[in-house]
Design goal:
Catalytic activity (chains A, B): carnitine + NAD(+) = 3-dehydrocarnitine + NADH + H(+)
Oligomer: homodimer
Subunit structure (chains A, B): Homodimer.
Number of helices of chain A: 13
Number of strands of chain A: 8
CATH class of the largest domain in chain A: Alpha Beta
CATH topology of the largest domain in chain A: Rossmann fold
Number of domains of chain A: 2
Structural class of chain A: alpha/beta
Protein name (chains A, B): L-carnitine dehydrogenase
Largest interface: A-B, 123 and 123 residues
Strand order of the largest sheet of chain A: 3-2-1-4-5-6-7-8
InterPro entries (chains A, B): 3-OHacyl-CoA_DH_NAD-bd, 3HC_DH_C, 6-PGluconate_DH-like_C_sf, 6PGD_dom2, L-carnitine_dehydrogenase, NAD(P)-bd_dom_sf
Largest sheet of chain A: 8 strands, mixed
Order of helices and strands of chain A: HEHEHEHEHEHEEHEHHHHHH
Radius of gyration of chain A: 22 Å
GO molecular function (chains A, B): carnitine 3-dehydrogenase activity
Chain lengths: 331, 331
């Protein structure tokens, strides 16, 4: 990532994002479009597939029901969506362009180079790629400094997470502007510190997913049983706290410090097929300090009370939705 | 697991669970006790540690606030908890005994053998072990057929999942009785088909946990950033659907079949440090059939609408609890 140069407020103001172009209108692209429309932006969509516009409009209408419940921004309207089958003209007037083509490096590189040629000089170009690194994606672009990864999660119109990954050539000012834009559409920007295949969240999910495939493959559980092992247990905690804070609370009064003493040796057991890193003193202290910072000075007991308060409400909310309920309960 | 023999209804009725003994009263043991008391059982607790009774009573009182909100069974009372520092007398009159000693094989084997000697002949003995296999644990017991694993999740008084794992010597009738008991205290029993280190849920969590440790160790993210990558994204879906049904919905109209076509090749990429199983035709079909069965005849669109309906409510519920909110928001 390149350091900011010649950054000034006036220039920033003239770069304010008003018009969005979304390239590729499948599950992810249409999710971006619904989210941007609900937050009061004008959106131009483009996709070369036959019938793409019709499918897109149906998807956005389905999402709109939920977005209305979440709350629409002033002036938000489905009528502010325009479909343009021509890529060059679709992106030509946009301040922010979000690309959602299939996960093929050659295809995405060529597509981003074309977008880069047709876009306004100060437009930001973000790719939704789940696995390809931004330095690779930006390498054929004339202005690689405005190209980065903005990786969302399905359904994009409801889940707030977006991973922002700058490439080697990306300007730090672009990262800041992209982050501000994503926040303006209700998202939580997570800046990924190093380029890595799968970024952060997909690596975590993929580890769990691969172990789940092993479990089914070895006849230990069916897919429904693996799913039950998540939704009735860890899944409930993960809506509130990630793996670190969860284990911080499993360690009793001493939190993560005690947890690592007690379950550190487990890292060497064959509990998954994944080999863990060595639990060095440095790693141990980094994790303990991280969890303590996340606790913001609150005791484990205070965090437990907060967790339980949430879980009681979540359990009541979930009852009619869970697999143990008749699926028709919330249809 | 041994097949049921001489199973008759009258015998079952005389074996009904009324009195519970809980051995070991740390985080997990006290969680069991709170759950059993809230469901109207008499509980005898035992633990050799100094001050154990006092700590236990404080823990159960803290849990009671949440349990009252969830709803207490008729006659449920904190006064139905008795503490007995003597192991033999604590378990002597119990119909169901739950063991929660530290995770050390030698310690647990000896303890279970002692419990087995002091317990009534028809009492059920369950271990909360997260990693040790039941065949190992029951090997020093005189009546190993009534010994099995019943592995819960923290906080035990709120999370419904319990993994039931029979050992080689466990009688199938005992498995059924244990499962019925756990259901009577509001839990979701998950029978694990094969003994395996870490059972099912902890293997999935451990895979994610090990990858999280690698990510922190490699400087890709801090603990807070890893946690954010879960709570603002996948964590929201996992309260409702496990990894299989989640990916079934990511595949568009064709569900898991399309998903495996599109992301099957990803299994070979270095997205985690865990090597995935080979995606054979047999495994592929097993997973697709599993997801289709879990869908109970509903279309992907119907499942999406149900998911979104839940997510809208969950997002509203989570707002004051999330790290982005001031932690004091729900203290």
């Amino acid at each position: 990532m390149k350091k900011a140069t010649n950054l000034n407020v006036q220039a920033e103001e003239t770069h304010q994002v008003r018009k969005i172009a979304v390239v590729g209108t499948g599950v992810i692209g249409s999710g971006w479009i619904a989210r941007c429309l609900a937050n009061g932006y004008d959106v131009v969509a483009t996709d070369p597939a036959t019938g793409a516009e019709q499918r897109l409009r149906a998807s956005v209408e389905q999402a709109w029901t939920s977005l209305t419940k979440v709350g629409l921004a002033e002036g938000a309207s489905l009528r502010r969506l325009r479909f343009d089958p021509d890529l060059a003209s679709a992106v030509s007037d946009a301040d922010f362009i979000q690309e959602n083509a299939p996960e093929r490096e050659d295809l995405k590189r060529k597509l981003l180079a074309k977008i880069d040629k047709s876009a306004k000089p100060n437009a930001i170009i973000a790719s939704s790629t789940s696995g390809i690194t931004p330095s690779t994606l930006q390498s054929d672009c004339g202005r690689p400094e405005r190209v980065l990864v903005g990786h969302p999660f399905n359904p994009v119109y409801l889940l707030p997470l977006v991973e922002i990954v700058p490439g080697e050539a990306t300007d730090v000012a672009i990262v800041e502007r992209a982050s501000a834009f994503y926040q303006s559409i209700g998202m939580q920007s997570l800046l990924v510190r190093k380029e890595i295949e799968g970024h952060i969240a997909d690596r975590l999910m993929e580890a769990l997913w691969r172990e789940a495939l092993h479990i089914v493959n070895d006849g230990v559980a069916t897919t429904a049983e693996v799913d039950a092992a998540i939704v009735y247990g860890a899944g409930l905690r993960w809506a509130l706290m990630g793996p670190f804070l969860t284990f911080h609370l499993a360690g009793g009064e001493q939190g993560m410090r005690h947890m690592l003493e007690q379950f550190g040796p487990t890292l060497k057991l064959p509990w998954t097929r994944l080999e863990a890193p060595k639990l060095t003193d440095a790693l141990r202290e980094e994790i303990i300090a991280g969890c303590e910072a996340q606790s913001e000075g609150h005791s484990i007991e205070q965090l437990e009370i907060r967790r339980d308060d949430f879980l009681v409400r979540l359990l009541a909310l979930l009852k009619p939705y869970w697999p143990a309920a008749n699926l028709d309960g919330r249809m």
